[in-house]
TrEMBL record:
It is an enzyme of class 3 (hydrolase). The keyword Hydrolase applies. This is Peptide deformylase. The active site is at 175. Keywords: Hydrolase, Iron, Metal-binding, Protein biosynthesis. Removes the formyl group from the N-terminal Met of newly synthesized proteins. Requires at least a dipeptide for an efficient rate of reaction. N-terminal L-methionine is a prerequisite for activity but the enzyme has broad specificity at other positions. SUPFAM superfamilies: Peptide deformylase (SSF56420).
């Protein structure tokens, strides 16, 4: 959500990471809104931050969660931005291990208002796919275009175009889905979601608890700032 800068008190401290929104959180099902590079974002429980601050913290959040991509709705912001990274080797979402992921980064990306165009319509179903908002659940068979072109705005306001294939193309398509309120399980047969019914119900309960904690944090922040 973007807000006029005169309506909020700036966040006093930049958090190192954001809490991840989990399956069942309504923000994950909203269609995100376009974002301007110079907009200000009201981060729940934190306050006003610049787009650059949000992007940097999203990257840190993604690294800590051992992810390959993270969309703004996954940290509670319904705006069209995602971050992603290309590692030296393919990294599955939530993959374990102690090795710092930053040591394996080839490129990282911050994409604002991305638009994906398919350049190879042949579908690939060979990779296992997961999601930081649905931890512990992984499935093969999610159909993704083998190659895409992404038009986006970077943090300096420059319009860019990037082509990607195979695993990186899958990452970009996964993150763009988040901006349209689509989760990777939606692209699989309904019985797959049903198979994980117990796990998803547990995530919904965790999500409700997290939303309650965030609401309390936001209330305290506003009281302290006099807002």
């Amino acid at each position: 959500m973007t807000v006029p800068t005169n309506q909020l008190t700036p966040a006093p401290d930049k958090p190192r990471v954001y809490p991840l929104r989990l399956y069942g959180d309504p923000v994950l099902r909203r269609k995100a809104k376009p974002l301007g590079v110079n907009d200000s974002l009201n981060v729940p429980g934190v306050g006003l931050q610049s787009v650059r601050q949000v992007a940097e913290t999203m990257l840190e959040t993604m690294f800590e969660a051992r992810g390959v991509g993270l969309a703004a709705p996954q940290v509670g912001l319904p705006v069209r931005m995602f971050v992603a990274v290309e590692y030296e080797d393919d990294e599955e979402e939530n993959e374990g291990g102690d090795e710092p992921l930053r040591s394996r980064v080839l490129r990282d990306f911050v994409m604002i208002n991305p638009v994906v165009r398919v350049i190879n319509k042949k579908k690939d179903r060979s990779y296992q796919e997961g999601c930081l908002s649905i931890p512990g659940i992984y499935e093969e068979g999610v159909p993704r275009a083998r190659a895409v072109s992404v038009q986006y705005t970077d943090l300096d306001g420059v319009q860019r175009t990037l082509e990607a294939d195979d695993y990186l193309a899958r990452v970009f398509q996964h993150e763009l889905d988040h901006l349209d309120g689509v989760l990777f399980l939606d692209r699989l047969p309904a019985e797959v979601t049903e198979d994980y019914r117990k796990e998803l119900l547990a995530l919904q309960q965790r999500s409700k608890s997290l939303l309650s904690d965030l609401a309390n944090a936001e209330r305290l922040r506003r009281e302290r700032s006099g807002g």
